[in-house]
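Q: Fold this one first, please.
A: Sequence and structure below.
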Amino acid sequence: MRTTIREVAREAGVSPSTVSRALSMPGLVNSVTRERVLRAAQRLGYEPNRAARGLITGKTGNLGLIVPDLANPFFPSLVKGVQARAREADYAVFLADSDEDPAAESDLVRVLAKQVDGLILCSPRGREEDILTLAATTTLVMVNRRFGRVPSVVFDNSDGIGQAVAHLAALGHKRVGWVGGPRASWSDRDRIRALRAATAAAGMDLYVAGHFPPQFEGGVAAADLIVAAGVTSVIAYNDVMALGLLGRLRDRGLRVPQDISVIGIDDIQMSSMSSPTLTTVSLAKEQAGRAAVDLLLSLLERPDGVRKPRRELPTQLLVRGSTGVAPTD
């Protein structure tokens, strides 16, 4: 049988209403009484009814998490970070997939906003004006995108791309290609800006192959353009696309890294299992999920704003088997 609030009240020697206040609004109960109630609840194994508590506090005890593509192996680690931190804070997480569709993303925010206390938007694809409208109606945090005053958690793309370009330059590469991701992706725009600056500073030629789906097939589709461009190295928008590049380059008879070097971004688990293993810019995905929850909880506690609504996480180049000395002409 589930322990009731009346049983906790009898154990603690207080009224049921005092137990309710001690558990849902502890600031309204003196510390001695609150401690007595908490000890009684712990002894009896009492777990508050989330729905009933919501009626009292006006809070659901739920957080929403929207990602553009659950099949993309970048997101599971981030989701794990969100869920782990939310669980520590006694929140449940509602997860939804927008399928890379900005309209579906906005619809999901509107639906979930009625059922959660706050939302985390991962790599949102919507227009800035649309996201600003949504942010005005519900408490939300973006991950992997930044603009205006919307709270966000991002990765230091500039430093990560800079490390990748410096690595290629040290190996003697003079020509580098870029295989871009979705046209609506903020990360793609941020990374190409960093890449243009880094290659210019290093005196390297840059070839931009264009925008491709952020999937294995996108890398396959871009590979022939990369070969035709005559570059000796290529950086892909993400690891999954880089793996597609590796496969197609192998089919074309090119050796990696002897003929061309390949770098990905994300450090997904498969990147260390490929042949050759993939050099990649590692992103702290699980840490980003936890940081997003921390920021969201801070906003829920202080609706008037937090001191640092923007958080940037470091990136790190991991050198593996897919990069090597530039081939001689």
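Q: Good. Now the second chain.
A: Here it is, same layout.
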Amino acid sequence: MKQDCRIGLVQMESMVGETERNLQNITYLAEIAQKQEISLLCFPECALDGYSPHDATAIANPLDSKWIKQLRECSMDLGITLLVGMVERRSGEHRPYISQVILSPGEELKVYRKVHLGRSELEYFSPGDHFPIFSAHGTSFAVGICWDWHFPETAAIYSLKGAEVLFAPHASPLVAGDRKELWLRYLGARAYDNSVYIGACNLVGSNGKSKKFSGGTLVIGPKGELVEQTEIGNEGIYTAILSAERINHIRRPERTSMRDSFFLADRRKELYHELIELDILDK
């Protein structure tokens, strides 16, 4: 990490199919984030279009839609990188994707497509097939969406490919239980084992149909410690400054004598080809 990075994690309500309303809320929160000098602003899963698997095909939008064009303009005007969840329609494909678009000033649009679909999503969405790494504001980062983080391989792959910050946007309903309590059961291990920061956020309130979401934001440090979690209330942004000095110290074994900082150096990547994709071994 080249410098300290101020990130923002959004807790917001998103109505299914009300893309214009959701977009206005996203741009409003982005304007607030710019005033707070946030560099990377992560919105929850499907924030742009709303989360409802049964309605996915009807509400999906392509990456060249007017909504995405407006988000690109927003990113450029404010000078911040936006990570926005959406339901993505791709030409010629039967089912849409649960995607997170990455919009950085002056850069081409990039996208992560949810690799691990939940059981209730399999009938309605297509799974992604790639674990991309992104870079902006001197920080290397990656995205996993909700269910992705229940699989340890996701964090390991990203860490081996050089990601320093992992974003975890969610659309977790109230019936799943207290989101922050659940996150602490496994996200701390993902951060500690892979020497990364993890920032998580969730939808809150109603989706305008049958689902209600529990909200929640938190940041976990590269030693698995809870940096801070806040009770935002309804909608808002949790802000955290991620220390470049700290993560660089941990991820570069030659700079420290602490044994638990050598996880990355001691991995036997040459033997992991049965676990992870071969393209990682070339990184």
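Q: Anything worth noting on the second one?
A: The longest strand covers residues 81-88.
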